[in-house]
Design a protein that fits this description.
The protein is an alpha+beta fold. The chain has helices at residues 17-36, 43-61, 115-121, 132-138, 140-159, 166-172, 181-199, and strands at 8-11, 64-68, 71-75, 79-84, 90-93, 97-101, 104-108, 176-179. The strands form 2 sheets. It has a 5-stranded antiparallel beta sheet, with no helix packed on it. The chain has a 3-stranded antiparallel beta sheet with strand order 5-6-7. It starts with 7 loop residues before the first strand and ends with a helix.
């Protein structure tokens, strides 16, 4: 044990947060009104409200990108992908963040760049780690791309792993995909409840 603290870095999502909060609040408000309104409970309104709030949470608030102690963590709508940093071969932030490890490509909608930003960034010279701070000010998507690339390179150097080498391929086999069980249950349950409420 070297006593080093685990490294952690969280990247701020580039879109959807305001709309996500609005969708969750709107959905929950609808569900409460369906329960507390005058007369009998309107179950289809309750189910629709819960489903709308669950969709807002899963699609716009849950997605995220972070580094947790030598692992790149991609939180998506219904799963979380954990990629060893040293296994990362390529990183690109276009409309979404795309990471290649081994034979597979993993994406996250949490970080992206608009077309206009992409065209502008294509003219930006890339000068390595010294320019990361400047990139963060000019283009956050480009900053995230370069920062993840930098962290992956550091992890490979520390572990003595060559880019596209057999050791890296073996590491890529250790990528884990974990289902987001609460979100899946809530989305499926509220959708089923809505169908039953409408049919019955």
């Amino acid at each position: 044990m070297t006593g080093d603290k685990p490294r952690g870095e969280t990247f701020v999502p580039t879109s959807g947060r305001v709309y996500g909060v609005a969708a969750v609040l709107l959905g929950l408000t609808g569900a409460v009104l369906g329960l507390a309104g005058e007369g009998p409970v309107t179950w289809w309104v309750v189910a629709l409200g819960v489903n709308f709030a669950a969709l807002g949470w899963a699609a716009m608030l849950r997605p995220g990108v972070a580094v947790r102690d030598e692992t790149l963590v991609l939180r998506n709508i219904v799963d979380t992908v954990r990629i060893p940093l040293a296994a990362v071969e390529e990183v690109a932030v276009r409309q979404v963040l795309a990471v290649r490890a081994g034979e597979k490509r993993y994406t996250s909608a949490a970080i992206g760049r608009k077309r206009r930003q992409l065209r502008r960034d294509d003219r930006v010279p890339r000068g390595g780690s010294a320019d990361v701070g400047r990139m963060a000010e000019e283009s956050y998507g480009l900053f995230v791309e370069e920062r993840i690339r930098q962290l992956a390179e550091e992890a490979r150097t520390t572990q003595g792993i060559k880019l596209y080498g057999p050791e890296q391929a073996a590491l890529a086999a250790g990528v884990r995909r974990e289902p987001a069980v609460p979100e899946i249950v809530l989305l499926a349950g509220s959708a089923l409840a809505l169908v039953l409420a409408v049919v019955v």
